[in-house]
Amino acid sequence: MWKKLVDDNKKEDIYKEQKSRKIKLYADEDIEKELIEYLREKKINIKSAKELNYEGRPDSFHVAYAFKNKRFLLTKNVNHFWDDKKVPFQKVFGIIALVGKISDINIPILLALIAFEDYYKGMKIKLSQNELVFKFINNKNESTVTHHKINNTGNIYVWVP
Q1: Nearest CA to 123 among 98, 84, 94?
Q2: Which of 161, 102, 97 is nearest to 132 (CA)?
Q3: Is residue 72 within 8 Å of residue 24, measured between CB atoms?
Q4: By the 8 A CB rule, do 75 and 65 touch?
Q5: What is the CA radius of gyration of the chain?
Q6: Which tens digits make up the pLDDT trace of 72-108?
Q7: Distances from the Cα of 65 to the Cαs of 27, 61, 70, 158, in angstroms?
Q8: Contact between 135 and 145 (Cβ < 8 Å)
Q9: Which residues pair with residue 48 across a beta bridge?
Q10: What's the whole-model pTM score?
Q11: How does strand 143-150 pair with strand 131-137?
Q12: Domain span including residue 155
């Protein structure tokens, strides 16, 4: 069953109560220049593999660079970075994997995620226009996945079995 995550009347209160650092990003070479420029216009701290001349490097290099520099890896290479055997959690500062073209990405949700580094640190996050998936290690040291859907008014629903 899908359950609404936040009551519309309480959305503003949640954002006011949260005190966290903004996520710093490292965009691998799959991320479009237009998205990087847009995020910079929104005052997001983002470095780009293309600008650092790291194009053509293996995926393991990009995740290691992001981890070493305490940045979330922003990528479109969902298949590789979502795989815990290829990219184990202990080597991840955080990953945001975007699904689709720029026009397919839910930008308001992306900006909301970026606002809360302390909450999302260590997670793998998959974002598309109408889906948000979190993968993380829970307090029992188990890999956990939560699925959320986003409707056309921006409300987020979580799957509750």
Answers
A1: 94
A2: 97
A3: yes
A4: no
A5: 15
A6: 999 999 999 999 999 999 999 999 999 988 888 888 8
A7: 11, 6, 8, 32
A8: yes
A9: 27
A10: 0.88
A11: antiparallel
A12: 2-159
